[in-house]
Amino acid sequence: MPELPLLARACSHRDRVAFRTAKQAHTYQNLLDHSARLASVLLGATDDLQETRVALLVPAGPAYVAAQWAIWRAGGIKVPICLSATEPEWEYALTDSRAAIVLTDAPMTAKIAPLCARLGVRLVDVNSPSTNPAKALPEIGPERRAMILYTSGTTSKPKGVVTTHANIQAQIESLVTAWEWTAADRIPLFLPMHHIHGIININCCALWSGATIEPFAKFDAATIFDRVRADAYTVFMAVPTIYVKLIQALEAAAPADRAAIVGGFARMRLMVSGSAALPASVHEQWTALTGQKLLERYGMTEIGMALSNPFHGERRPGAVGLALPGVEVRLKAETGAIVTTEEEPGEIQVRGAGVFRAYWNRPEASAESFDDGWFRTGDMAVRERGYYRIMGRLSVDILKSGGYKLSALEIEAALLEHPQIQECAVIGLPDDTWGEAVTAVVVTKDATPLELPALRDWCKGRLSVYKIPQRLLVVKELPRNAMGKVTKPAVRALCEAV
Ligand code: MCA
Ligand code: AMP
């Protein structure tokens, strides 16, 4: 029997279906067997990977989970990387984490093999044949480091967020309890598998519970609608941009189709939104269309989920509810005092077993991000009629677009490599579909015109698609304060004026 609780629980559901695809059903036992074989391959001549970093480049599905469990069973740290990232972005994650192995599948092998060869990283296929004889697997304690997730912040390059097995278990148990997951649940999974939303909230919670996941290579409204009208799901989780896209697609559907699809949504026991602010208008539109009251929650890579509207009780549009089980939340005012009354804003600070261990190899950033044992989220909130409401972020250099957290500084650094760009400032402007649209305000080196399509083309291969500016404003000079520093509020005002 495997030691890790997540795997022990999988054993207790061994005959249930963990993944269902259009072609096949995969039981929990299939995943356990696959992961044991692969753990043996990863171990090779060693008995324990001893926290070796293993990058994971596999789409959502049974092979992803087999690989994740194999890394953990062999004693490694899983570093999931973005399937659609550019080569420089992959290289950064592999070198920063000092990954020794990349685990991937046949379709991705050709894409990453040259980089692995250049960096001297071992490339392992997730479907490698088993070693003979199978190796004994090491004992894995809860305090062992399990995962590094790269997240953008106020530094130019993303930081690695390190969580232990105990942190991950706490994050899962909190949500399974709050949202009453059971083995009877069925959920689609179309979110990327290098972020908490896909990894923990959907994948790990479902598998902890013995539930069934339907994986998709990417989000596609028409595909999802076909399954929703067939009552394929009991639970649904997505980012606000996806709800906006679903509303647009539902409104465009023929009335008879729309009625059938809406019926499928209405019959689900839970629909969740998170990763970015859900506009109250979208919340209300969704209820008007489907009768479902979305449950909005708030979380962060460093802490998992922290605040949630209740499963039973009022789900208030524009609010994120209360602290989840096992999570302590406080607001700290600008004065340094802990907020004790309603209507007074403060920074959200979080404490609990799900809070990450540290940033990978960044002791100073790790120390700075805690305030007397509480994690400083950098998000402002206020309590109103009992519930927290998110007001925004402390840093203007962090954007959220399509549910992805982006660093303005990282995008600015990339744009400054452009031969025509002298100076630039990146901000997020409100956008009905994406939440925020990446907007670049630039000063060019000469009078040669710089157009958005050409700039976007140039960015391809350098930046992931969601980091590429959607809007461009060319100006003579960037607004600066008395100290000569570019001021982002003034940059925003400039954009709003045109
Ligand atoms: C893509 N496009 C964009 C953006 N992204 N345009 C503006 N802003 C963007 N952010 C454009 C592309 O350029 C392309 O344009 C077209 O949209 C289709 O691109 P594609 O990549 O196919 O888009 P998509 O597949 O429709 O993606 C939309 C998406 C995706 C499904 C909403 O962005 C997504 O999966 N987001 C979720 C991210 C997530 O899981 N975040 C959670 C992290 P053209 O057609 O002109 O080429 S946060 C987290 O984990 C915390 C803990 C939490 O609280 O949950
Ligand atoms: P990430 O680092 O990608 O995990 O993103 C975490 C950030 O997403 C948080 O710090 C918030 O700024 C934002 N976020 C997540 N959920 C919500 C929400 N329900 N409302 C507003 N912002 C959110």
Commentary on this structure:
The chain has 498 residues and is α/β, with parallel strands linked by helices. Helices cover 33% and strands 27% of the residues. A 5-stranded mixed beta sheet has the order 11-12-13-14-15. Strands 16, 17, 19, 20 and 21 form a 5-stranded antiparallel beta sheet that branches. Strand 12 (270-273), helix 11 (280-290) and strand 13 (295-300) form a beta-alpha-beta unit. The longest helix is centred in the first third of the chain and has 16 residues, at 28-43.
CATH homology superfamily of the domain at 398-497: ANL, C-terminal domain
Please report which band the strand proportion falls in: under 5%, 5-15%, 15-25%, 25-35%, 35-45% or over 45%.
25-35%
Mean pLDDT: 96
Rg (C-alpha, Å): 23 Å
Which CATH architecture of the domain at 398-497 would you pick?
A: 2-Layer Sandwich
The low-pLDDT segments are none
- The CATH topology of the domain at 398-497, please? GMP Synthetase, Chain A, domain 3
Distance between the termini: 64 Å
Shape: globular
Tally of helical segments: 15
The ligands found in this model are: methylmalonyl-coenzyme A, adenosine monophosphate
Write down how many β-strands occur, each being a DSSP E stretch of 2 or more residues: 26
* Main beta-sheet annotation: 5 strands, mixed
Helix content: 25-40%
Structural class: alpha/beta
Spatial order of strands in the largest sheet: 11-12-13-14-15
Q: Mind telling me the CATH class of the domain at 398-497?
A: Alpha Beta
